Known about the structure:
- Among the domains are: 172-283, Roll (Chitinase A, domain 3); 285-389, Chitinase A, domain 3 (Roll), CATH 3.10.50.
- It is 45% helix and 18% strand.
- It has 16 helices and 13 strands.
- A hairpin with a 4-residue loop joins strand 9 and strand 10.
- The longest helix is centred in the C-terminal third of the chain and has 29 residues, at 394-422.
- It holds the Pfam family SurA_N.
Amino acid sequence: MRIKQTFTKLSLIAMFGASLAVAPALSYAEEEIALDSTAAVVNGGIILESDLDRHTSELMQNYKAHGAQVDELTARRQALQSLITRSLILQLASGNGADIPDMQLDSILKQTALRNNTTPEKILASYGNISEAQARQKFKEDYLINEVRRSSVRQRINISDSEINTYAKALKERGSVEPMYHIGQVVIPLSSNPTEQEYRRAQANAQKALKDLRGGANVDEVAAQYAVNSQSADLGYLPETAIPLPFLPALIKAKPGDVVGPFRSAVGMHILKLYDVTKNAITPVKTYRASHILIKTSIIFSDEAAIAKLNSIMDDVKAGKMTFAEAAKKYSEDPGSAVQGGDLGYQSLDAFDPGFAAGIAALSVGQYSEPVKSSYGWHIIHLDDVKIDKDSLNAYKDKAASLIFEREFAEAVAYWERGLRESAYIHVIDPELVRAGAGIEMDNTTSSQPVQNKDGKISQGSVYMN
């Protein structure tokens, strides 16, 4: 049985600081200071001006590094959109009512570092000039956001066996090289159910962007006029198998420097600039044969209890009271592998939950892991064997499934995040940012007061300013 990538229990520290609930009333001057420090209200959470300033500065530096000239208002709008989306996902995580204890966070940090060939200290240092506690909180939030995205979007992506087999054959037949495309992208956003007016506006903007790019304009600068997130328009080098199918025919025919599109997707219209095409050596498929014992957690069975139970089981295994396979059959809560003594067969790391995969990657053949956390619960893993399979079709199926998933994942995430924004209550404080479109999709209405329905309640999806 494969340990699939899902995430069912999530939480994080409350969005509000204690100071927001201390004083029963504020003086006029104090209220002005409090309002000045708030950039936006997102459902029940807030985005602080200081965080918006910091993120805007980072974006401006990023654009400068790419040689793009973007005005501060555009960068600030993108920064706020990014922070709004981040806040919404973290609120969704918090609503699931769990937490990542410090011990588990330490384990995730170590596993992440091992998988990326670095150290926990370097990961935390990458968050910049902030305290270790702040860096750990940022890492926790990033981990939760990634897990919520994957678990929420994965169920929307259906990959058939025939698709996997077709790509597996293509990977195998391609041999040792695969085309790599260095691409820049401009996305003209469209709401989930665009009106005719919205669609015509998007078409007009797409044609303007296309004309600007073919006239030599910087991709980052053009993208900044229409972007719905704060990421660079430079997508870097992507393997052919990671590029959405509707884009491929035009890219295959294009030469470096060409601009192609627009292409329609679920999130809008895409225009692509091809910077370069190269060949990339395909890494042989490395597969791992592992066995495991899974103990699940619940409201009444904590992480600590699961870890204690696994340690007790391993004490019996090490004492010779039972074999690992016997223990798996008796105790493991993974029914698919328990009957096989915990044996998962040969799989690539891509087939496993990220936490589980990191646990396997840290082992040598014949070694047992310490308790490892995945989205399913806690595991003890035994690494039975490692081999490199260059020839069989099965060796490429997991890689093919992963590539197809990643191809569809980015578009599905953008569509899902837009749905979060459209269904949220977002109050942007700065009128200039509201006029610039921060926090809203294309034609959402803004007003000087909250939009109310016939029951007097704030309408979902409304965005208003002071």
